[in-house]
Design goal:
The protein is α+β, with helices and mostly antiparallel strands. The chain is built from five helices and four strands, in the order αββααββαα. It has a single domain (about 5-135), classed as Roll (CBS-domain). Helix 3 packs parallel to helix 5 (about 125-135). This is CBS domain-containing protein.
């Protein structure tokens, strides 16, 4: 099965100049744990709820600061031609819970471990194995 069959295609994004508070509010509003950060339609980073807490709050960065101060600029991405198994393997290898799907540098979808677990019964074992590999202490 191809990843395009289970990915979320209605992806909300924020801009690098969006504030930590704006991004956190958007995460709450749409009930997600990460937001791709895009500039002129191009993916420039990603921010997770954990980033906001660990890189933002814990470091006493003001909530009015631009999200560009804490985003992860090196983003692992996938393409629509990945299989579910390949996507799960990438997520496990890089210890990530969300994989933006891109065409060129434009985000066209995102896949989470939850997508692997609930969207396709045959993908459940990929999600389970990926969670185990992500959670392993090195």
């Amino acid at each position: 099965m191809k990843i395009k069959e289970i990915m979320t295609t209605d992806v909300e994004t924020c801009m690098p100049e969006s504030t930590l508070q704006e991004v956190a509010l958007k995460m709450r509003e749409i009930n997600v744990g990460s937001i791709p950060i895009c500039e002129d339609g191009r993916l420039v980073g990603i921010v997770t709820d954990r980033d906001i807490v660990v890189r933002g709050l814990a470091e006493q960065i003001p909530s009015e600061a631009p999200i560009s101060e804490i985003l992860s600029a090196e983003v692992v991405t996938g393409t629509v031609d990945l299989t579910v198994e390949e996507a799960a393997e990438m997520m496990a290898t890089h210890k990530i819970r969300r994989l933006p799907i891109v065409t060129g540098e434009q985000v066209i979808g995102i896949v989470s471990l939850g997508d692997l677990a609930i969207r396709d019964v045959s993908a459940n074992h990929y999600a389970e194995n990926t969670i185990i590999e992500i959670s392993e202490v090195e």
